[in-house]
Amino acid sequence: MKKMIIPFLCLGIAVMGLSSCGEKEKELEARESKLGEGLDQKRKTLNKVVRSVDELETEDYSEKLVEVNLKLDALMRELEFEKTELKKLSAEKREFVKRLEDYRKKYSMGED
Amino acid sequence: MKKLTFENIGMGGVLGLMSFFLWSCENADDIQELEASIDSITESLVDVESRLEEEEEKLARLKEWKEVEERYQASSTKFEAVESELKLVKEKTKELSIALKAASLDFFKYRNQYRSMVRAKAKGTLIDLSSVKGAEYKGVRISRITPLELRVLLPSGPKGVPYALLPEEHQHRFQFSDEEANAYRQAVAKLRIARAKANRVIDADKENEEAITQLTENAAAIADKKSQIASMTRRIKAKELEAERLESLSRQWQIEENNSKRRGKKYSANSRATKASDEANKIRLAILRAKEIVLQLRFEIGQLLKVD
User: Is any Cβ of chain B less than 8 angstroms from the Cβ of A12?
Assistant: First the structure.
Protein backbone atom coordinates (compact mmCIF):
# COMPACT_ATOMS: atom_id res chain seq x y z
CA MET A 1 0.00 0.00 0.00
CA LYS A 2 2.88 2.27 0.92
CA LYS A 3 4.53 1.51 -2.45
CA MET A 4 1.58 3.03 -4.24
CA ILE A 5 1.88 6.39 -2.51
CA ILE A 6 4.90 7.53 -4.53
CA PRO A 7 3.50 6.83 -8.04
CA PHE A 8 0.20 8.41 -7.13
CA LEU A 9 2.02 11.37 -5.61
CA CYS A 10 3.97 11.73 -8.86
CA LEU A 11 0.76 11.45 -10.79
CA GLY A 12 -0.79 14.20 -8.72
CA ILE A 13 2.22 16.46 -9.22
CA ALA A 14 2.13 15.81 -12.97
CA VAL A 15 -1.57 16.60 -13.13
CA MET A 16 -0.98 19.81 -11.22
CA GLY A 17 1.99 20.67 -13.44
CA LEU A 18 -0.04 19.97 -16.52
CA SER A 19 -2.94 22.07 -15.35
CA SER A 20 -0.57 24.98 -14.56
CA CYS A 21 1.08 24.51 -17.99
CA GLY A 22 -2.32 24.73 -19.60
CA GLU A 23 -3.09 27.95 -17.77
CA LYS A 24 0.22 29.48 -18.75
CA GLU A 25 -0.34 28.45 -22.35
CA LYS A 26 -3.74 30.10 -22.33
CA GLU A 27 -2.27 33.20 -20.77
CA LEU A 28 0.53 33.31 -23.35
CA GLU A 29 -1.94 32.77 -26.18
CA ALA A 30 -4.02 35.64 -24.91
CA ARG A 31 -0.91 37.82 -24.64
CA GLU A 32 0.22 36.81 -28.13
CA SER A 33 -3.17 37.61 -29.53
CA LYS A 34 -3.28 40.96 -27.74
CA LEU A 35 0.22 41.84 -28.91
CA GLY A 36 -0.63 40.70 -32.43
CA GLU A 37 -3.67 42.96 -32.43
CA GLY A 38 -1.57 45.80 -31.07
CA LEU A 39 1.04 45.19 -33.79
CA ASP A 40 -1.62 45.14 -36.50
CA GLN A 41 -3.05 48.36 -35.14
CA LYS A 42 0.37 50.01 -35.05
CA ARG A 43 1.11 48.80 -38.59
CA LYS A 44 -2.16 50.26 -39.80
CA THR A 45 -1.34 53.55 -38.11
CA LEU A 46 2.17 53.47 -39.58
CA ASN A 47 0.79 52.84 -43.08
CA LYS A 48 -1.64 55.67 -42.63
CA VAL A 49 1.12 58.03 -41.48
CA VAL A 50 3.41 56.92 -44.33
CA ARG A 51 0.59 57.55 -46.82
CA SER A 52 0.03 61.00 -45.29
CA VAL A 53 3.77 61.70 -45.54
CA ASP A 54 3.75 60.62 -49.20
CA GLU A 55 0.71 62.79 -49.90
CA LEU A 56 2.31 65.84 -48.25
CA GLU A 57 4.89 66.50 -50.91
CA THR A 58 6.38 69.83 -49.96
CA GLU A 59 9.62 71.59 -49.12
CA ASP A 60 10.71 74.15 -46.58
CA TYR A 61 9.42 77.56 -47.74
CA SER A 62 10.48 79.44 -44.59
CA GLU A 63 13.22 81.45 -46.28
CA LYS A 64 11.08 82.10 -49.35
CA LEU A 65 8.23 83.20 -47.07
CA VAL A 66 10.49 85.68 -45.28
CA GLU A 67 11.72 87.00 -48.63
CA VAL A 68 8.25 87.34 -50.17
CA ASN A 69 6.89 88.97 -46.99
CA LEU A 70 9.77 91.42 -47.01
CA LYS A 71 9.00 92.34 -50.62
CA LEU A 72 5.26 92.38 -50.00
CA ASP A 73 5.69 94.74 -47.08
CA ALA A 74 7.81 97.09 -49.19
CA LEU A 75 5.36 96.86 -52.07
CA MET A 76 2.38 97.64 -49.84
CA ARG A 77 4.17 100.68 -48.44
CA GLU A 78 4.93 101.76 -52.00
CA LEU A 79 1.29 101.26 -52.95
CA GLU A 80 0.14 103.36 -50.00
CA PHE A 81 2.65 106.02 -50.97
CA GLU A 82 1.55 105.99 -54.62
CA LYS A 83 -2.09 106.28 -53.57
CA THR A 84 -1.22 109.31 -51.44
CA GLU A 85 0.76 110.77 -54.35
CA LEU A 86 -2.21 110.21 -56.61
CA LYS A 87 -4.43 112.11 -54.17
CA LYS A 88 -1.88 114.93 -53.92
CA LEU A 89 -1.52 115.19 -57.70
CA SER A 90 -5.27 115.12 -58.06
CA ALA A 91 -5.58 117.95 -55.52
CA GLU A 92 -2.85 119.90 -57.33
CA LYS A 93 -4.65 119.47 -60.65
CA ARG A 94 -7.97 120.55 -59.10
CA GLU A 95 -6.21 123.60 -57.70
CA PHE A 96 -4.95 124.61 -61.17
CA VAL A 97 -8.36 124.00 -62.71
CA LYS A 98 -9.94 126.14 -59.99
CA ARG A 99 -7.29 128.84 -60.42
CA LEU A 100 -8.07 128.90 -64.13
CA GLU A 101 -11.83 129.05 -63.49
CA ASP A 102 -11.43 131.86 -60.97
CA TYR A 103 -9.09 133.70 -63.28
CA ARG A 104 -11.47 133.31 -66.20
CA LYS A 105 -14.33 134.63 -64.06
CA LYS A 106 -12.30 137.57 -62.84
CA TYR A 107 -10.55 138.38 -66.12
CA SER A 108 -12.86 137.35 -68.91
CA MET A 109 -11.58 137.86 -72.46
CA GLY A 110 -14.84 137.47 -74.36
CA GLU A 111 -16.91 140.40 -73.05
CA ASP A 112 -14.17 143.05 -72.98
CA MET B 1 -0.85 -12.42 -6.66
CA LYS B 2 -1.35 -9.58 -4.24
CA LYS B 3 2.31 -8.55 -4.71
CA LEU B 4 2.00 -8.72 -8.44
CA THR B 5 -1.08 -6.55 -8.38
CA PHE B 6 0.70 -3.92 -6.33
CA GLU B 7 3.73 -4.03 -8.66
CA ASN B 8 1.49 -3.79 -11.71
CA ILE B 9 -0.31 -0.85 -10.26
CA GLY B 10 3.06 0.76 -9.41
CA MET B 11 4.32 0.20 -12.94
CA GLY B 12 1.11 1.54 -14.38
CA GLY B 13 1.50 4.61 -12.21
CA VAL B 14 5.08 5.09 -13.41
CA LEU B 15 4.00 4.62 -17.05
CA GLY B 16 1.13 7.06 -16.56
CA LEU B 17 3.50 9.50 -14.97
CA MET B 18 5.88 9.21 -17.92
CA SER B 19 3.08 9.76 -20.44
CA PHE B 20 1.92 12.76 -18.43
CA PHE B 21 5.44 14.14 -18.49
CA LEU B 22 5.65 13.54 -22.25
CA TRP B 23 2.39 15.36 -22.73
CA SER B 24 3.41 18.15 -20.51
CA CYS B 25 6.70 18.32 -22.44
CA GLU B 26 4.69 18.82 -25.62
CA ASN B 27 2.84 21.64 -23.81
CA ALA B 28 6.17 23.12 -22.79
CA ASP B 29 7.17 23.22 -26.49
CA ASP B 30 3.97 25.08 -27.29
CA ILE B 31 4.72 27.54 -24.51
CA GLN B 32 8.22 28.04 -25.86
CA GLU B 33 6.82 28.61 -29.33
CA LEU B 34 4.32 31.04 -27.91
CA GLU B 35 7.02 32.86 -25.97
CA ALA B 36 9.20 33.03 -29.09
CA SER B 37 6.26 34.35 -31.04
CA ILE B 38 5.55 36.94 -28.33
CA ASP B 39 9.20 37.98 -28.38
CA SER B 40 9.12 38.31 -32.15
CA ILE B 41 5.87 40.30 -32.01
CA THR B 42 7.33 42.51 -29.28
CA GLU B 43 10.44 43.12 -31.42
CA SER B 44 8.28 43.95 -34.42
CA LEU B 45 6.17 46.19 -32.25
CA VAL B 46 9.22 48.05 -31.00
CA ASP B 47 10.47 48.39 -34.58
CA VAL B 48 7.06 49.56 -35.84
CA GLU B 49 6.71 52.00 -32.94
CA SER B 50 10.13 53.46 -33.62
CA ARG B 51 9.31 53.83 -37.33
CA LEU B 52 5.95 55.29 -36.43
CA GLU B 53 7.62 57.81 -34.17
CA GLU B 54 10.03 58.77 -37.00
CA GLU B 55 7.23 59.03 -39.53
CA GLU B 56 5.06 61.05 -37.14
CA GLU B 57 7.94 63.47 -36.58
CA LYS B 58 8.38 63.69 -40.34
CA LEU B 59 4.65 64.24 -40.77
CA ALA B 60 4.60 66.95 -38.11
CA ARG B 61 7.53 68.69 -39.86
CA LEU B 62 5.86 68.31 -43.24
CA LYS B 63 2.60 69.68 -41.85
CA GLU B 64 4.51 72.65 -40.51
CA TRP B 65 6.19 73.10 -43.91
CA LYS B 66 2.82 72.73 -45.60
CA GLU B 67 1.43 75.49 -43.42
CA VAL B 68 4.44 77.65 -44.28
CA GLU B 69 3.96 76.78 -47.98
CA GLU B 70 0.29 77.78 -47.77
CA ARG B 71 1.29 81.06 -46.14
CA TYR B 72 3.94 81.52 -48.84
CA GLN B 73 1.35 80.85 -51.57
CA ALA B 74 -1.07 83.31 -49.94
CA SER B 75 1.67 85.94 -49.66
CA SER B 76 2.71 85.33 -53.27
CA THR B 77 -0.87 85.72 -54.46
CA LYS B 78 -1.24 88.90 -52.41
CA PHE B 79 2.12 90.12 -53.77
CA GLU B 80 0.89 89.63 -57.34
CA ALA B 81 -2.38 91.42 -56.55
CA VAL B 82 -0.58 94.34 -54.89
CA GLU B 83 1.91 94.46 -57.77
CA SER B 84 -0.85 94.75 -60.37
CA GLU B 85 -2.70 97.32 -58.24
CA LEU B 86 0.53 99.30 -57.89
CA LYS B 87 1.00 99.14 -61.66
CA LEU B 88 -2.50 100.55 -62.15
CA VAL B 89 -1.95 103.30 -59.57
CA LYS B 90 1.38 104.21 -61.22
CA GLU B 91 -0.29 104.40 -64.62
CA LYS B 92 -2.98 106.65 -63.13
CA THR B 93 -0.28 108.80 -61.50
CA LYS B 94 1.46 109.12 -64.87
CA GLU B 95 -1.79 110.10 -66.57
CA LEU B 96 -2.57 112.55 -63.80
CA SER B 97 0.91 114.10 -64.06
CA ILE B 98 0.29 114.74 -67.75
CA ALA B 99 -3.17 116.15 -66.96
CA LEU B 100 -1.65 118.35 -64.23
CA LYS B 101 0.97 119.65 -66.66
CA ALA B 102 -1.79 120.39 -69.18
CA ALA B 103 -3.93 122.12 -66.52
CA SER B 104 -1.04 124.30 -65.38
CA LEU B 105 -0.17 125.12 -69.00
CA ASP B 106 -3.85 126.03 -69.63
CA PHE B 107 -3.78 128.38 -66.68
CA PHE B 108 -0.52 130.08 -67.66
CA LYS B 109 -1.61 130.28 -71.32
CA TYR B 110 -4.91 131.86 -70.44
CA ARG B 111 -3.29 134.34 -68.07
CA ASN B 112 -0.76 135.37 -70.71
CA GLN B 113 -3.46 135.55 -73.39
CA TYR B 114 -5.46 137.80 -71.14
CA ARG B 115 -2.42 139.95 -70.39
CA SER B 116 -1.53 140.20 -74.09
CA MET B 117 -5.12 141.08 -74.97
CA VAL B 118 -5.57 143.73 -72.31
CA ARG B 119 -2.18 145.24 -73.09
CA ALA B 120 -2.80 145.19 -76.86
CA LYS B 121 -6.17 146.87 -76.36
CA ALA B 122 -4.59 149.56 -74.23
CA LYS B 123 -2.07 150.38 -76.95
CA GLY B 124 -2.76 153.88 -78.35
CA THR B 125 -5.18 154.85 -75.56
CA LEU B 126 -4.63 157.78 -73.23
CA ILE B 127 -3.73 157.21 -69.62
CA ASP B 128 -3.38 159.33 -66.56
CA LEU B 129 -0.30 158.46 -64.59
CA SER B 130 -0.56 161.08 -61.90
CA SER B 131 0.58 158.91 -59.04
CA VAL B 132 3.84 157.61 -60.52
CA LYS B 133 6.57 158.01 -58.00
CA GLY B 134 8.73 161.02 -58.76
CA ALA B 135 6.78 162.12 -61.85
CA GLU B 136 3.33 163.09 -63.05
CA TYR B 137 2.02 162.27 -66.50
CA LYS B 138 -1.50 163.22 -67.46
CA GLY B 139 -3.33 162.13 -70.57
CA VAL B 140 -0.35 160.41 -72.09
CA ARG B 141 -0.67 157.90 -74.90
CA ILE B 142 0.38 154.33 -74.34
CA SER B 143 2.74 153.17 -77.07
CA ARG B 144 3.58 149.63 -75.80
CA ILE B 145 3.28 147.48 -72.70
CA THR B 146 5.81 144.78 -71.89
CA PRO B 147 5.96 142.68 -68.70
CA LEU B 148 8.65 145.10 -67.51
CA GLU B 149 7.26 148.51 -68.30
CA LEU B 150 4.56 150.73 -69.70
CA ARG B 151 5.86 152.84 -72.56
CA VAL B 152 4.17 156.17 -73.09
CA LEU B 153 4.64 158.90 -75.65
CA LEU B 154 5.58 162.19 -74.01
CA PRO B 155 6.08 165.49 -75.81
CA SER B 156 9.75 165.02 -75.09
CA GLY B 157 9.69 161.59 -76.71
CA PRO B 158 8.88 157.95 -75.74
CA LYS B 159 9.42 156.97 -72.12
CA GLY B 160 9.27 153.64 -70.35
CA VAL B 161 7.75 153.59 -66.87
CA PRO B 162 8.82 150.47 -64.92
CA TYR B 163 5.77 148.56 -63.72
CA ALA B 164 6.90 148.75 -60.09
CA LEU B 165 6.51 152.56 -60.22
CA LEU B 166 2.98 152.43 -61.62
CA PRO B 167 -0.03 152.97 -59.36
CA GLU B 168 -1.48 149.76 -58.01
CA GLU B 169 -4.63 150.20 -60.05
CA HIS B 170 -2.64 150.06 -63.32
CA GLN B 171 -0.46 147.24 -62.09
CA HIS B 172 -3.61 145.26 -61.46
CA ARG B 173 -5.29 146.32 -64.73
CA PHE B 174 -2.34 145.23 -66.87
CA GLN B 175 -1.56 142.22 -64.69
CA PHE B 176 2.04 143.08 -63.95
CA SER B 177 3.92 140.76 -61.61
CA ASP B 178 7.48 140.16 -60.42
CA GLU B 179 7.27 136.53 -61.49
CA GLU B 180 6.32 137.50 -65.04
CA ALA B 181 8.93 140.24 -65.18
CA ASN B 182 11.72 137.86 -64.15
CA ALA B 183 10.61 135.19 -66.59
CA TYR B 184 10.35 137.79 -69.34
CA ARG B 185 13.86 139.09 -68.69
CA GLN B 186 15.15 135.54 -68.88
CA ALA B 187 13.21 134.78 -72.09
CA VAL B 188 14.40 137.99 -73.77
CA ALA B 189 18.00 137.30 -72.80
CA LYS B 190 17.79 133.81 -74.26
CA LEU B 191 16.18 135.06 -77.45
CA ARG B 192 18.84 137.71 -77.87
CA ILE B 193 21.61 135.14 -77.45
CA ALA B 194 19.93 132.86 -79.98
CA ARG B 195 19.43 135.74 -82.38
CA ALA B 196 23.04 136.85 -82.04
CA LYS B 197 24.15 133.31 -82.82
CA ALA B 198 21.88 133.09 -85.85
CA ASN B 199 22.65 136.67 -86.86
CA ARG B 200 18.94 137.44 -87.06
CA VAL B 201 17.43 140.88 -86.78
CA ILE B 202 14.03 141.14 -85.14
CA ASP B 203 11.85 144.09 -84.15
CA ALA B 204 10.88 144.85 -80.55
CA ASP B 205 7.21 143.80 -80.92
CA LYS B 206 8.18 140.44 -82.36
CA GLU B 207 10.72 140.00 -79.60
CA ASN B 208 8.07 140.83 -77.02
CA GLU B 209 5.67 138.31 -78.54
CA GLU B 210 8.28 135.55 -78.69
CA ALA B 211 9.44 136.27 -75.15
CA ILE B 212 5.89 136.08 -73.83
CA THR B 213 5.34 132.72 -75.55
CA GLN B 214 8.60 131.57 -74.07
CA LEU B 215 7.75 132.73 -70.58
CA THR B 216 4.38 130.97 -70.69
CA GLU B 217 6.13 127.74 -71.48
CA ASN B 218 8.75 128.48 -68.84
CA ALA B 219 6.11 129.14 -66.18
CA ALA B 220 4.41 125.83 -66.98
CA ALA B 221 7.79 124.05 -67.03
CA ILE B 222 8.75 125.57 -63.67
CA ALA B 223 5.40 124.57 -62.14
CA ASP B 224 5.88 121.05 -63.50
CA LYS B 225 9.44 120.78 -62.20
CA LYS B 226 8.42 122.11 -58.79
CA SER B 227 5.68 119.51 -58.63
CA GLN B 228 8.21 116.83 -59.64
CA ILE B 229 10.63 118.00 -56.95
CA ALA B 230 7.91 117.92 -54.30
CA SER B 231 6.89 114.42 -55.36
CA MET B 232 10.49 113.15 -55.51
CA THR B 233 11.28 114.64 -52.11
CA ARG B 234 8.31 112.79 -50.65
CA ARG B 235 9.47 109.61 -52.41
CA ILE B 236 13.00 110.03 -51.07
CA LYS B 237 11.68 110.40 -47.53
CA ALA B 238 9.51 107.29 -47.90
CA LYS B 239 12.41 105.31 -49.36
CA GLU B 240 14.74 106.47 -46.59
CA LEU B 241 12.25 105.14 -44.04
CA GLU B 242 12.04 101.87 -45.97
CA ALA B 243 15.84 101.53 -46.08
CA GLU B 244 16.06 102.25 -42.34
CA ARG B 245 13.40 99.62 -41.65
CA LEU B 246 15.29 97.03 -43.72
CA GLU B 247 18.60 97.88 -42.11
CA SER B 248 17.03 97.52 -38.67
CA LEU B 249 15.54 94.13 -39.65
CA SER B 250 18.90 93.03 -41.04
CA ARG B 251 20.65 94.02 -37.78
CA GLN B 252 17.99 92.22 -35.73
CA TRP B 253 18.34 89.01 -37.79
CA GLN B 254 22.10 89.21 -37.61
CA ILE B 255 21.91 89.41 -33.81
CA GLU B 256 19.54 86.42 -33.77
CA GLU B 257 21.97 84.48 -35.97
CA ASN B 258 24.94 85.33 -33.73
CA ASN B 259 23.02 84.40 -30.57
CA SER B 260 21.99 81.07 -32.09
CA LYS B 261 25.58 80.34 -33.11
CA ARG B 262 26.77 81.09 -29.59
CA ARG B 263 24.18 78.70 -28.17
CA GLY B 264 25.19 76.12 -30.75
CA LYS B 265 21.76 76.13 -32.36
CA LYS B 266 21.19 75.87 -36.07
CA TYR B 267 19.40 78.99 -37.19
CA SER B 268 19.09 80.36 -40.70
CA ALA B 269 18.64 84.09 -40.08
CA ASN B 270 21.91 84.94 -41.81
CA SER B 271 20.58 84.68 -45.36
CA ARG B 272 17.51 86.80 -44.61
CA ALA B 273 19.72 89.36 -42.85
CA THR B 274 21.88 89.54 -45.99
CA LYS B 275 18.79 89.84 -48.20
CA ALA B 276 17.37 92.69 -46.12
CA SER B 277 20.73 94.43 -46.14
CA ASP B 278 21.02 94.02 -49.95
CA GLU B 279 17.52 95.44 -50.43
CA ALA B 280 18.39 98.38 -48.16
CA ASN B 281 21.55 99.02 -50.21
CA LYS B 282 19.54 98.95 -53.45
CA ILE B 283 17.13 101.50 -51.96
CA ARG B 284 20.02 103.70 -50.78
CA LEU B 285 21.41 103.67 -54.34
CA ALA B 286 17.97 104.59 -55.74
CA ILE B 287 17.78 107.43 -53.18
CA LEU B 288 21.14 108.76 -54.36
CA ARG B 289 19.91 108.67 -57.97
CA ALA B 290 16.66 110.43 -56.97
CA LYS B 291 18.61 113.11 -55.10
CA GLU B 292 20.71 113.69 -58.22
CA ILE B 293 17.49 114.10 -60.24
CA VAL B 294 16.15 116.60 -57.69
CA LEU B 295 19.41 118.57 -57.91
CA GLN B 296 19.17 118.52 -61.70
CA LEU B 297 15.54 119.75 -61.55
CA ARG B 298 16.51 122.54 -59.15
CA PHE B 299 19.34 123.51 -61.47
CA GLU B 300 16.91 123.56 -64.42
CA ILE B 301 14.47 125.76 -62.48
CA GLY B 302 17.39 128.03 -61.59
CA GLN B 303 18.30 128.23 -65.27
CA LEU B 304 14.70 129.07 -66.20
CA LEU B 305 14.52 131.78 -63.55
CA LYS B 306 18.01 133.08 -64.14
CA VAL B 307 18.17 136.67 -65.31
CA ASP B 308 21.24 137.66 -67.24
Answer: no
